[in-house]
Amino acid sequence: MLDSALSVFRMGRNMARLMEGLGVTLEISVVAVGLSLIFGVPLGLMMAGSNRPLKWLLRGYLEFVRVMPILALLFIFYYSLSKFWNINLSALTVSIFVFTLWGAAEMGDLVRGAVTSLPRHQWDSARALGLSEGQVSFRVIIPQAIRRLLPGVINLTTRMIKTTPFVFFINLPDLLKVGQQIVEVSGLRYPLASVWVYGFIFIIYFVICYPISLFSRYLERRWAS
Amino acid sequence: MSLGPDILKIKDLKKNFGSLAVLKGLTLTVRQGEVLVIIGPSGCGKSTLLRCLNGLEPVQGGQIIFGGQYLTDPHINWSRTRQRIGMVFQNYELFPHLTALDNVLLGLIRVQKRSKTEALAIAERWLTRVGLWDRRGSFPRQLSGGQKQRVAIVRALALEPEIMLFDEVTASLDPEMVREVLDVIVNLAKDGRTMLIVTHEMAFAKAVADRVIFMDEGLIVEDAKPEVFFENPATERARRFLNIFQFSDIHKPQEPSASPLAKEAQDVKESNDAKESNDAKDSKEPELS
Q: ipTM of the predicted structure?
């Protein structure tokens, strides 16, 4: 049995292709989550700010991204853009763009929630000490908001990673799609191929996502002490 | 105690929350080294007055002149000015993610740009003075309410402000912790610090004040020495206000017909109740706007 498992992975370029698929999954996840964090923080601070027109604009953006299925967003930016405006973006670029568009909106909303949940007098007492507006944000508000943000951010990160297989619909073979192709080709010769391949993929996703949970638990414990 | 020159002049100060006038042309002068206790029913504008002095509330009219500088100038550098005006609030407003020591160091290092060693020496001196140097590594949630307020007070004092504003600093404390906080303030008064104190602790007010300011409906109604104000207030409104505190410990009033004194107590209580419901309405208004 173990033989058949190893044979599936040894056949042709199967292992190399799985690793390429993993590369696509990781690239989209890491870049999009990173960019979402970078854009989400200022977005959230603006959403919690006092500029009303800007708040409405961001609210509209958030609701648009939230209501729209990710798949539809991928199609719009991959197929529709090229058809109507002749803008041809690579599937990888579109994927990263769409996942960032989604992640930044949700991250912004998480930041907004964390910031507005802080008591009003935290701002007052920080200002009363003579801290500048920037120092109030970076020394007092953001450090406290991050602690409240953590569970939501971890949740969002794993959700984004788990959603990456959608990119196959714009012809980008990620880890899961490569696995499926391998199972289809070798399923006749090795009946247990699906168990081995999907099992392998499960372990890889676990290895990616579990450390994130561990890290968040570590931080929560450190901040609680 | 000898008083210095005028340090703070407030002229015709006006503050509105929407259509509600909270300060209606308030005028007040404070001399260096003076301890002013501001009392009055809730919603009378006393907390708002302190917040205006620290630029936490924009004002709609009048002038505030502090040490020769116009605080009502729209181009004022508040970061620099607030170092000269220390403020402590009613709610525990220590930063919960920082230890007691780091709370005190923050302003010294980030605002005043002092070296770590210098800031530490200053923090040690102040925390020791309020008996909390041993607790310097504790986070606010590990401190009692009284301890938190003492840290909040020295956090403001460490920046060496020229005037201190205390906004009902004992109002959220359990009764047994009120004393330890008030003792710190009494000690500061002995040092000759200029202080504006909003409080409901009348015995404390009597002990610490050089002048008592009684406010009602956005104006100063009385401005008197504490012995004069507490023994013999000039206005009916002040007398009624002080009565609240005298009668507040009567749990079971006697039968209404029993004595004229009891009847009077009943009247006072009723008028207070009516007043309080008004005030509650007033004080809610600002938060909405």
A: 0.78
